[in-house]
Write a structure and sequence with these properties.
The structure is a single chain. The chain is an alpha/beta fold. It is built from 10 helices and 11 strands. The strands form 3 sheets. Strands 1-11-8-7-5-6 form a 6-stranded parallel beta sheet. Strands 3-2-4 form a 3-stranded parallel beta sheet, sandwiched between helices. A hairpin with a 5-residue loop joins strand 9 and strand 10. Helix 6 crosses helix 10. The radius of gyration is 19 Å and the shape is globular. The chain starts with a strand and ends with a helix. It binds NADPH dihydro-nicotinamide-adenine-dinucleotide phosphate. NADPH dihydro-nicotinamide-adenine-dinucleotide phosphate binds next to helix 10. Pathway: One-carbon metabolism; tetrahydrofolate interconversion.
């Protein structure tokens, strides 16, 4: 039987509609959620991402501020800006678009963001809280996967989730969040021997490798759920995932397409985290 196609775009849209309502309520109580984005240099992909984030904020009613700096920005000025935004009561979320130019330390800059405003979920405090199963800001892409599965009524409890990839922004947090959902988790990476032996055992595969159509039908057991995080270009320059969608969908129970799967969830969870941050601030003000 052909797989169910998980429509990330529709799920993301539903969540954004819900957020819009929550934001209206917050505004009626005098709180406008605010997101500040810092962009350094002229990486074209980063500029596109930031424009998309700005547009998504406007659509749901989040106030957004973008700070664009030239590539030769000093670390001192950047850290000063972060410190200023940490203190700004109109700002509930701070995001520094990565990658940064090589002379700037990403670790130092992320560490400087107040964990309470780290809506990207990259600060070690938030990562640590996630690791011990506490509430925190979770990294947007893996959190989007969890939300997406929740909306599809797919429980991870007791399932064997195999995550392919161990990056700090996708693979590792996807593994930790799956564990939090009581899955049995295996993490694979470039040094894994006989990768297919692991993925073929999986009830759920989360592919975050960054290689076009890397996993094929035979790498999955029939009836598996396949979550494809990859955003790659195929031989014709067309956007594609880490999974060979056409073959894998023949035997999978459910699969996310690329585009239209995990991608739309990522910015949505950034909006979601920003709204949560504004709500937390509003609650603190009441106390
Ligand atoms: P990274 O390059 O940081 O990580 C890739 C991971 O894949 C690494 O852990 C690497 O292992 C592993 N890997 C590489 N080759 C192999 C192999 N042959 N076998 C097994 N594992 C392998 O990428 P990201 O995690 O940042 O992103 C992964 C993909 O997801 C990319 O296509 C990216 O564009 C996409 N992406 C999509 C997002 C979305 O919103 N949809 C958001 C973020 C990313 P090792 O650690 O050993 O090197």
């Amino acid at each position: 039987m052909a797989a169910a196609i998980i429509d990330g775009k529709a799920i993301a849209q539903d969540i954004r509609t819900e957020l819009k309502k929550e934001i209206e309520k917050l505004k009626a109580n005098g709180v406008t959620p605010g997101l500040a984005v810092i962009l350094v240099g002229d990486d074209q992909a980063s500029h596109t991402y930031v424009r998309n984030k700005d547009k998504a904020c406007a659509e749901v009613g989040i106030h957004s501020e973008i700070y664009r700096y030239p590539a030769d920005l000093s670390e001192e000025v950047l850290l000063q800006k972060v410190a200023e935004l940490n203190e700004d009561p109109a700002i509930h979320g701070i995001l520094v678009q990565l990658p940064l130019p090589a002379h700037l330390s990403e670790d130092k800059v992320i560490d400087a963001i107040s964990p309470e405003k780290d809506v990207d979920g990259f600060h070690p405090v938030n990562v640590g809280k996630m690791a011990i199963g506490k509430e925190a800001f979770y990294s947007c892409t893996p959190y989007g996967i969890i939300k997406m599965l929740e909306r599809e009524n797919i429980s991870l409890e007791g399932k064997h989730v195999v995550v392919v990839g161990r990056s700090n922004i996708v693979g590792k947090p996807a593994a930790l969040l799956s564990l939090k959902e009581s899955a049995t988790v295996t993490v694979c990476h470039s040094k894994t021997k006989d990768l297919s032996a692991f993925t073929r055992q999986a009830d759920v595969v989360i592919a975050a490798v960054g290689k076009a159509k890397f996993l094929k039908k035979d790498d999955f057991k029939p009836g598996a759920i396949i979550i494809d995080v990859g955003m790659n270009r195929d031989e014709n320059g067309k956007l594609c995932g880490d999974v060979d969608f056409e073959s894998a969908k023949e035997t999978a129970a459910a699969i996310t397409p690329v585009p239209g799967g995990v991608g739309p969830m990522t910015i949505t969870m950034l909006l979601y985290n920003t709204v949560q941050s504004a709500k937390q601030k509003a609650q603190q003000a009441v106390k």
